[in-house]
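Quick question: what would this complex look like in 3D?
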Amino acid sequence: MGALRLPSLTSLSSAAAAIPRHRCRRELRLPFRRLSSTNFSAAETELPTTTTPPKPKIQQDKDRVITPRSQDFNAWYLDIIANAELADYGPVRGTMVIRPYGYAIWEAIQDYLNVKFKETGHSNMYFPQFIPYSFIEKEASHVEGFSPELALVTVGGGKELEEKLVVRPTSETIVNHMFTQWIHSYRDLPLMINQWANVTRWEMRTKPFVRTLEFLWQEGHTAHATPEEAEKEALQMIDMYTKFAYQQAAIPVIAGRKSKVETFAGASKTYTIEAMMGDRKALQAGTSHNLGQNFSRAFGTQFTDETGQRQHVWQTSWAVSTRFVGGIIMTHGDDTGLMLPPNLAPIQVIITPIWIKTDEKSGVLDATTSVKESLQAAGIKVKVDDSEQRKPGWKFNFWEMKGVPLRIEIGPRDVSSRSVVISRRDIPGKQGKVFGISMESSTLVGYVKGKLDEVQSSLLEKAKSFRDSNIVDVGSYDELKEAIAQGKWARGPWSASDKEEIKVKEETGATLRCFPFEQPQGTKKCLMTGDPADEVAIFAKSY
Amino acid sequence: MGALRLPSLTSLSSAAAAIPRHRCRRELRLPFRRLSSTNFSAAETELPTTTTPPKPKIQQDKDRVITPRSQDFNAWYLDIIANAELADYGPVRGTMVIRPYGYAIWEAIQDYLNVKFKETGHSNMYFPQFIPYSFIEKEASHVEGFSPELALVTVGGGKELEEKLVVRPTSETIVNHMFTQWIHSYRDLPLMINQWANVTRWEMRTKPFVRTLEFLWQEGHTAHATPEEAEKEALQMIDMYTKFAYQQAAIPVIAGRKSKVETFAGASKTYTIEAMMGDRKALQAGTSHNLGQNFSRAFGTQFTDETGQRQHVWQTSWAVSTRFVGGIIMTHGDDTGLMLPPNLAPIQVIITPIWIKTDEKSGVLDATTSVKESLQAAGIKVKVDDSEQRKPGWKFNFWEMKGVPLRIEIGPRDVSSRSVVISRRDIPGKQGKVFGISMESSTLVGYVKGKLDEVQSSLLEKAKSFRDSNIVDVGSYDELKEAIAQGKWARGPWSASDKEEIKVKEETGATLRCFPFEQPQGTKKCLMTGDPADEVAIFAKSY
């Protein structure tokens, strides 16, 4: 059917005419400014607090293309963020404005996790963001980890404050201060809460979504009567994040335990999900900490157990942040732009009506509306681009660049045949395009849902095979160095010291990302020392 | 049927025995500490930045009663907040921890408004909370209004900052800084966004929910091509807030326009919804501002219109905050505690199973589960209190104090007769109690939904008649003073000067709350000057 349609479309040239449907690469003309990495990230010296606001620009259609991913991964990433309107720089160095399209991805993440948190017995609440400086100092390794990154409020209501206030970098300290007042007996446990909040860390090297001075996250905090319960909770939450990453974000993360060196400041154990980005760098995409009694001892968070004894509670905390949006971009995006997993896409289907003659317009638009309503009624997130300022070809490029999983085209012939054309974002050109799908609601809805599921699975499979082809099993430090030098992840037996772990970082730039939960059977020898090793670890360069 | 049941219940006295069902007032024994107003609110001098953390307490069942509302409204309010576990004090003076039950009310507010905002074309996004100090100074009246209340970050990452940063008290300045970069032509308009965020105002007199150093809100910001569109938007949003207040919160607010004196710092016009609390003080519960071109001129936010001319955009902003939760408490609460409107109640129905003999337990609990599941399946927010530590009478008190609109009791007799007993929170004692409602799912669901609707309407009607009986029409300043002295709202024609408006405040403590949208017909004479007046205004003491 495609061959029958094409001639009539390629010969069109009126105001709203179509660009040939079989063209795979089309010129992208976008009026947006490019984000420059040098503006956002800055060296540790010479940091201007604010960037100069750019002068207002008149709308202009300069040619803009997204830097090819293979050419410059970082430039490509920033181009996507700017052109897909995911985020923009805030006026203060290292801050980010999350624009509606980027925020909608975050909202989809929130919607999913929020339900899961509640299903597993957690309640949302809200703690103040100002923390007395003295709190941060109470847990020794916590203050050591966070003090270099703090933003401090020293003036309030026109007066110098007696005690400076920390703008929360995380909330363990204030949470424990409050838990100490709420927890009295074993009947008050477990206490399981979560908050959706902004946090501030004065990072020197920033990158939109991945590492910003202020970011959004959820932070869960729980208190339990026994260490076993706390451990179970910490594992439950990293498992929830893992499922979320696989099923919703189509990111095949590797879940595991952090080494002592990489453990959260104040935690006994940190569990992590590590994702491989398109440049093969690792991104820590979520963490869950077993805090043991570290904070409860520092803050005196005690309960009376069933035998009447006073005991310190056992705690966990766990978080996922707007960094995850960066992970989605860098896992699935390609030279054309963003590619969103259907389960988290703000727009799952873009409909482009196409007409040439004025008398065709109303028929095409009526059919478009009817198709839109069918899909919407079925819970599919659909948008119509019926603007007349842009030609269809421009729209195709635009919505592909925005990563919309499916495109539906409806032209006069489609109206006659009561069918539509559907293209997949993840398969370029003819291969991803199917003609003649019936407009009839039940057929179309079923077809579209099926295709969205296919795209979702396909993104995961593609990311999985990319990941697996870039993990190298190594048996010696030389092999590790070679794998890292090739930009890959090195996986090998590890039982060496913290000092040797730090040496690897200094010499190769790679860090120990995790000891994966999935471990090979059999006896192993540490790649560094040759001593017996219980586990393999993964080393990689990371964001 | 009630008479038939009571004897068997009043004679019970085993571990989980019931307290007689006809008792209207029962002793309330709660283990919670009381919030003291002196800890939270403080005079302008001698402000400790942090309060001393209270020592951990062993759980104890001291007798606790909520201060009667008529005796001390403020103490009553704080008692409800503490006992219903809505909020607690944060460690920094004037900050508040919003506990799960209080936060769930805020989430219900968010759920409703978020859908309405999106339906009317607004997109959520997120702006950084740190604003360069110079931004605040750009709009003259804005800096005048906000500079006394600012929290300033002066240290970041261990270094003194070159330019101090304001922790956002509101976001008009940073929004305009960004709008200036995004808006180029009339095609980019209207630009309509919203953000859910925390904001900080260094208030001297604080009160949980009503006025806190940090609070949560939504702030909408829009930019339009014409003043008419901006005005229409500002009115649309105050109308949305009004409907929300009436339909969801059962608060019969009076919507109107603020006087020039009371207009938001930087706005051309401020619209407001004013709610009458149980002590007859006014609470400004939401505002919508027509900003005119004040910020667009200060920040150079311009667009090219259809004729190619550069013009400044016309803007609005509008907000509702966690203060609204305080409004709900102070509108509907009574001596027994909180009373929540069903549409915003985190728990709409509490089910209390009651059994005496061990062999009755499983039958009662099975019936309870089945009733719970029926209601849940119908979308009703239901909770079962089957704890065995507390007697039914204690539970009745507890959940009444928590403001749950309906209580269902299920005892062995109810199981035999396949029926339940339902009590309304808003009608105490026998009058609010109905026996013998069938457990059969469709009957019960229909009955419960109907009752929830009745409670919702009834709360609104009660609040309306309270409001109307406390607004006095006045024709002279003497009458105004008398009405205010009686604690009422004074409504009268007003066309006097700002100076005279300020005089009223100084002499009576009352401020001009608004010129209501609903105005009486006919010619009027200003109550202060006797000059012709176009409108009546409402004066009242306020929070």
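Answer marked as accepted. Chain B touches chain A through 82 residues (CB under 8 Å).
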